[in-house]
Amino acid sequence: MFKLNKEQQSLLKAFACGAALALLLCSYGFFSQQARLRKVETELATVLAETEDLTGNVPWKVALYFIREEAGVSLLVPEVRMITPTSEPEKAALRALIDGPVTEGLQPVLPRKTVLRSLEITGGLAVVDFSRDVVAIDRGSWGEALVVWSVVNTLTKFPEIEAVRILIEGEPVETLAGHFDLTRPLRRNEQVIKDEWTR
C-alpha cells in the first residue's frame, strides 16, 4: 500500500486547505453577487415605477355627466372621478358612465346592460360602438338628448377628442330611441350642463 511521507502529507494538507479556502471565497463571491443583483433589481424596479409616474401612469381625473332634475328641469351635472391608471382612459370613462353615478341625486344615463363594444379615436373624432342594450331608454325626446350629450360631453373632456359619432352593434343609426339625430358627428354642448367642471 502506497504511503505518503511527512513532506507529501504536508503538501496534501496545504492543497486541501487551499482548495477549501478557494471554495469558500467562490461561495462568498457568488452570494455577494446574488445580493448585489437583488439590490440592482430593486433599484431598477423603483426607477421604473418613478418613470411610469412621470409618463402619466397615475390615476386619471375625469368628469362623467349624469342627469339631475331640479324644479322640473333636467340638465347634465359633472361627477368628478379618479379612475385607475390605464392606457385607454377614454374607454374607462365610458364604462364608468355605464356603471352610473355615485353621487346622491344624480340619475344614470345609460342602461347598466350596455356594453362598450369599441372606441376608435382618429383625427379628433371618437367613434363609439355600443351594444343594442343602449336603446333601452325611456326618457322622451329631451331625456334622450341628455343621454347622447352625456356621452359626447364625457368624451370631449379629453383634449384629443373634438367630436363623437355613436354606432350600435357596429352600424350607423338615426337615433337611439326615435328622437335625437345621430346621423352626424356631435361636438360638445355646454348649454345642457349645470355647474360645469373646468378642464
Summarize the structure.
With 199 residues, the protein is α+β, with helices and mostly antiparallel strands. It contains three helices and seven strands; from the N terminus they run αββαββαβββ.
How many helices?
3
Helix content: 25-40%
Q: Any low-confidence stretches, pLDDT <50, length ≥5?
A: 43-55
The radius of gyration is: 33 Å
As for the number of domains, it is 2
Shape: globular
Number of strands: 7
Question: What is the CA-CA span between the terminal residues?
Answer: 95 Å
The string of secondary-structure elements, in order, is HEEHEEHEEE
Largest sheet: 5 strands, mixed
pLDDT averaged over residues? 80
Tell me the structural class: alpha+beta
Approximately what portion of the residues adopt beta-strand conformation?
15-25%
